[in-house]
Queue: 2 jobs
Job 1
Amino acid sequence: MGRKKQFIKIPSLANIKCQHCGKKSRRKVPEDSSPPYFDCDKCGKRTSTPVTSCCIICAFTNTKCVPSLVMEAKSKGLTFLKRQ
Ligand SMILES: [Zn+2]
Ligand SMILES: [Zn+2]
């Protein structure tokens, strides 16, 4: 009855969806912060974090920011993987 270790993978890039034109812009995921906004590659408009979200990565991508992933991993007792 071996217990498998579970891992949470830390992403290095995320596609953030512009809330003005819908275009996805690729951005680096910062290692120790939660970005509050980003400027679109296509229309140049700024998308900010909604008040109900942690940051633009948590709000507008299919992943989460690194601090959130680390917190989640700790709360579930999981080990988290460093980015490759
Ligand atoms: Zn845009
Ligand atoms: Zn976040």
Note: The pocket of zinc ion (ligand 1) is lined by residues 18, 20-21, 23, 40, 42-43, 45 (CB under 6 Å).
Job 2
Amino acid sequence: MKWQGRQGSSNVRMSGGKAVGGGIGGIIIGLILWLVFGVNPMQALQTGQSMAGGGGTTTTEATDNSRDTQFVKVVLADTEAVWQQVFQEAGGTYKEPTLVLFNGRVNSACGGATAATGPFYCPGDETVYLDTSFFAEMRQNLGISGDQQGSGDAENAGKAGDFAQAYVIAHEVGHHVQTLLGISQKVNQARQQVGQAQGNDLSVRQELQADCFAGVWANRNEQRIQFLEAGDIDEAINAAGQIGDDRLAQASGRAVSPDSFTHGTSQQRVNWFTRGLKSGDIQSCDTFSGAL
Ligand SMILES: [Zn+2]
């Protein structure tokens, strides 16, 4: 994918350093949403609010010029531009999440996490957490080498995996969108009222919707800036089919996010990502009614 030379987000931070607070006002709005259990996503969109808790991490702005930091900043900015547009079209306002890059261990409002946790989103501080070793390991473990198309040249090998990495970030931002829409809160509440099997089913549906939202993002971003290159979609589909069963499932310690639950089958993940990608419309991402 094309990403160099674009403006990066100012919402990317490194763990360690000065404290960052969380919004308390959001809790009240969140409680209102909570009570209005029947609220539909578009109504919640217009409210444009979420359930924000206290911040639990200390961060500083990420200012290093490494490839990975620059890449994360650009992709996050791309998600901001797209979701601002989507929310605006529905008469709402998008609240940008924070993205924290951490090394080894981090404290989120959802509890402690290590690199083994994998990328996750914490609704409590509306932050995506990504460990700095993730991309390097993703390149190795997912076998994203760029030679699936039969092109083994160095330039392609160097670029390979860009879009799969962007897809992971977009999936986590998808969880943020679910939080802004009040969907995650409803899922959490419903999960407390059902048995484990049904609870897992709800988690899978939540994960697949985040995949679909990642697809919506890719569609909208392509319309906006034509950033895709040949092979990118295959890359993301490959990642969608592998990540849930591999890295993201290796949660350790306290469960910090829905990503510590199963993500659905490879085929389901591919199907829902593709659905969002083709439609560019979050209305096509209703994973909660009907068969998956
Ligand atoms: Zn997820």
Note: The two ends are 29 Å apart (CA to CA).
